[in-house]
Specification:
Elements: H1 2-17, H2 22-28, H3 31-40, H4 45-58, H5 62-75, H6 82-102
Helix pairs in contact: 1-2, 1-3, 1-4, 4-5, 4-6
Length: 103
């Protein structure tokens, strides 16, 4: 179960960036997954990236997504794994660029 909770954010990001099937995201984004991802976002930039993707692409909440983006930018030097941080920042930037192209 821990592995499923640990990887659900990445799975949701992949779904949102490819087929973006609402029913798949809602099936994956359980209360338990949301709680796990949110509580671990303090320690994991990939969890912040997942929350950002969910808020912007699934919930269409630009304000909340911006707050998460700013939090990731503020905390990027505090995370322990530079590679994970770089990957999370890259994903968030790609999502942001994709959204700007649609506007």
């Amino acid at each position: 179960m821990l592995f499923a909770l640990e990887t659900v954010g990445e799975y949701i990001i992949a779904e949102l960036l490819t087929q973006n099937r609402r029913n798949v995201v809602e099936k994956l984004w359980t209360k338990q997954a949301a709680k796990y991802t949110t509580s671990n976002s303090k320690y994991s930039p990939s969890k912040l990236a997942a929350l950002y993707a969910i808020e912007l692409l699934h919930n269409k909440d630009e304000k909340k997504a911006l707050q998460l983006y700013e939090e990731l930018q503020r905390r990027k030097v505090m995370f322990y794994l530079p590679g994970e941080t770089a990957m999370a920042l890259s994903i968030v930037e790609q999502i942001l660029q994709g959204c700007n192209k649609r506007l």
